[in-house]
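Bug #2210: token dump truncated for Fanconi Anaemia group E protein C-terminal domain-containing protein?
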Amino acid sequence: MDLKSLMQRFDGRSRLLVHALHLGAAGANNAQTVFNKQRRCDPDFTLTPFLQTLCQQEACVREDALVLKPLVCLFSEGFQRNLLCFLHLIHSGLPKDSVLHLLHCLTRDDRENQWACALIKQLQRDIEGTRKGTLLTSNCTETLESLCARFRNANAKGRWASCVEGLITEGKETDVSVLYQKKRKSDNMDHDGDAQEDPQSKRVKVDFSPSKEERLSEEEEHKMGTTQQNQSAASVSQAHSDLLGSSKNLPDNMKAAIPVIKELLDPESLWDESSLSALKVFHECDPNEVELLCSLLCLSEASEQSLPQFCSCLLELSPDLSHSTASAVITHLLLHKIVSLAESASRCLVTVVTSLCTRYPRPTCQALIEPILRKGQTGSAQAELLCRLVVDCLEPHHRLLVFRTTLGVSWDEGVLSVIHALLDSKLDLSEEDFSLFTDQLCRQSLHFSKSMKFAKMLLSVLTKYQSHVNPSGHHTLSSCLSFNETFLKKSLQAALKRISL
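Reproduced locally. Full output below:
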């Protein structure tokens, strides 16, 4: 049965979902977007008719016989995979019985699809809240058991070698088997060469005692470690040579300033007027030169104790650094240090970041805050520092710049903290900004259904931005609240009801 005939079984809204689920690998996400838009237009919209239609019995021909099959089994395997992924995203807001009935119908498909079987079992686990059974197919289980059995016998010949020999015996020529054959050939050649040696020497090479094996391993490890150290030293030396070679492209006054500026990066040195004069070369750099200068100065490797002194000198410069130069300096000096934070930033680092952000807010937003947010791993230490910048250092229009950045990045708990801090600063949002934000809230609501940070952020929206909520936004926020599973849900619903349209 072709797709057009299958579509006739659905109502208009369900057909949109069917179309979305047919759009290749992105079908599940497309269907979620369609579903969210339908919920915004009609908060009472439900997928029950769609699920019931998929479970309806449909006559079809199988092996020259007329049989009845659930409608969902007549769709392609790609459609079924997208459907299961889509249900996995939104199942918490659907009737459990309807979803489980659909999963039972999918198990009646004649086609054996291992991905579909694994997705069905995973979804059943999530709905029932259990972890019984396994996601592995019978073939996969048998293969793993056979593999484990080969390694269980400590006296078995070769272990991994016997496994590879088994693959070769079965005629499965793989890259591993080819490598193994080469190894065997190499071993044979070594043994032939050893035939000319005295018996004692040959016996030592073949029959190792445990102590000699350990000594050989230590020697090999030492040789490998020495080789790696030499390679590492060679790479560092090469990088240093490249930098020195590139420094030839710098003007003489910039070359002369490098050793003076490096003294500023020594925590025990004191800066004077000559140091301040040396920093004036940053005014004379073009974008390429400032990048090279920062690399030669190794700003990213400077210790945190040296940062306040260096920062004080930078802030003494007059006039201010250009936008591109300030961005380059901030990137080299701070980005790596903040991204690699595993705990709260030190007092030195906080002082430097806040000082530079106050003096150069836009370069800080574009060269520091935006890259950290876009990395998608904003931990608690990074979030704490960014929230401090938002509250203490940025003007309203710069906060709006950061807020727009958050709409285009992947959200995690750290990003939620930053957004909450931005909302608490009472942003001056346009109608378009607020609409984009509520759309993003709707897309993320399912992923953060149990997040207290997300719930508190929603409460800030409903209490501090009531004047921005229009009928369309009201539907969107209502859809967001339907997925919330925290104890704040009743407070959120009450706040939404108080908004007069």
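Output looks complete on our side. Confidence is low (pLDDT under 50) at residues 170-187, 189-217, 232-245. Marking as cannot-reproduce; reopen if the truncation happens again.
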